[in-house]
Every structure is written in structure tokens, then in C-alpha cells.
Amino acid sequence: MPVTDISADADTLTVNITADFAAPRERVWKVFTDPRQLERFWGPPGWPATFTGFDFAPGGLAQYHMTSPNGEVSRGRWEFLSIDEPRSFEVLDGFADEDGDLTGEFEPMRMVFAFEETPTGTRLNGQTYFTSADSLEQMVQMGMVEGTRLAMGQLDTVLQDLRDYAAGKGTQLEVLDDRHVRITRVIDGPRDLVWRAHHEPDLIRQWMLGPDGWRMTDCEISDRHYRNAWAPESGTEGEPFGFEGDILYSEPQRRTVMTERMAGTDGPETMNDLQLYEEDGATLLTMLIEYPDAATRDAILATGMIDGMEDSYARLERVLIVS
Predict the structure, then answer these.
(1) Quick count: other Cβ atoms within 10 Å of Cβ 108?
(2) Which residue range or ranges hold the Activator of Hsp90 ATPase homologue 1/2-like C-terminal domain (predicted)?
(3) pTM, whole model, 2 decimals?
(4) Please, what are the domains in the chain?
């Protein structure tokens, strides 16, 4: 995780962040000033950003929105106040309406991003300035500090070439807190095929087969619901099982959010937020999973879930992409 310090200071009415990156300053500058790269981390897990405008010049505007797992939208905009490439830039950040105008609900915040070369790469020193103690307190209560920490924690994958990032790593697990984990896997294939492999039953049946000695017996998916089931082959021990849930939000080729529970039961239920990003013919698959509590998280992870996911993703590459 690149963040080394983030804190709110009531005396100076600021939120301050320090983050260190093992990458040259020009590379770090690029991810903060290219809207397609900004989208990959500007917004905490579960609230990814989409930039719809980006006029990177003094007086220019950047417009963006963040979308929750349930499809709720929070809009914002930056007004660029000054730019000193590649050392720093300054913006006025505020909540916006559908037309991109400031809502007036909260006072805009002045944000300064400064990038300093270090012996190991680059240090970001960021300050957000508030106009009053009340506005600072409001944003802290809304989760700004922890949200910023989680957002910046996504930068490692953005700074690296996807193929370099993925080399030899397979399916990776990060425990974010008691209720959330992030799973990442780079699939050596295009995003449209990876998307279809998660949404078309004929393709799902080719790779999501379960453990060795098991077969997929049921695969149903609609705009609102899905159900998958497996059973052991003859000679394999075990009882048939399945998963089902509701599709809460879908943005084709990019994101699907769905609930998941054991079929035929009342829970426990998780919320799975699948996001896809393509670079140079490879697709980064990110799955943010929300559990009801830490005990449920630990019990599910202890089943060997990650190893099973790696087997399935390796089969996806082998069966659908290489062939």
C-alpha cells in the first residue's frame, strides 16, 4: 500500500496525505493527469470513478461521477487553478449536479498535489484545504480519510504494466478490513471475451466447473438474477451445491455487482463487485467482496476459495482464450 500517512488537522483545516511510489515522477504524474488512469483509482473500492470531461489547463474543468454498488451516483468536478508539470497541480474540488454545476451543498475544497523525486521513486504530498471547521468535520464523517486511503491503495496496479504486474502471481487476495476483501487476477485476453465468459451460460459452462471431479449442472442468468449449481461425478465424494443471487448493477464490459448466497438458504449473503479493465490485450479482473462480518469472511476464505478461483481462471484462459 503506497499511503504512509493520512490525517485531518483541525487547526489548519486540512486533510494531509503522504504516499510513496516505486515509480519515476513522470509516471506518477501521468496517472494523476490522465482521466483513463485516474478512473482506476479515484474513488474507493465499490465507488469507481468515471471522468466525462478533462480539460487539463488552468481554468479548465474535469467532470466525474462515482457509482455505488447499487447504482447510486455522486458527481463532482475539478477546476484546475494552477499546473507546474511534473511537480504539482492545484484544483478546486466540489460536488456537482447533472449539468456539471456546483450544487452548493458543500463548500468546494482546494486540493494541492505535489510530486517529489526520492531515491526510491516518488513521494506525493497532498493537502486538501477547507473553508471552515464544520465543512472539514462533515467530510471526515462522510469517510473522506479512510476512503482516500483505500483509493490510493489501488495505485500499485495502475503504475505497473498489467503483464509485469501479473507475472507469476495468479489470483491475489487482499484483506481490506473486517468485511471487505479485494481479489485480482490478470486474464491474458480481451475484456469483451472475459465479460462474455462471466455472462453467457454457454461460455460459463466451459470454465466455471468447480473442483476436479465435479461438473456444472445448472447455469441460469438474466438481467436481474442468476443461479449456478454443481454436483460430484461418479466416484467423487460430496453433496451437490449451488449459488444464487440478484444482479444489483451492470455496466456492460466494465462492471457487474451482484449478491451471492448458497442456493436454497437464507444466507449469509455477500455482495460481489466485479470490475474489468483492459490494457494491451490483457484484462485486469478485480472482485471486491463485502461480507456481513469478519467471522463469515474467514469461514468462506478457509474453504479454499482463492485456490478454486485460480483453477477456474486458468481454465478460462486455457479453454476460451488460448484455444
Answers:
(1) 21
(2) 22-159, 190-320
(3) 0.85
(4) 3-156 (3.30.530.20), 164-322 (3.30.530.20)
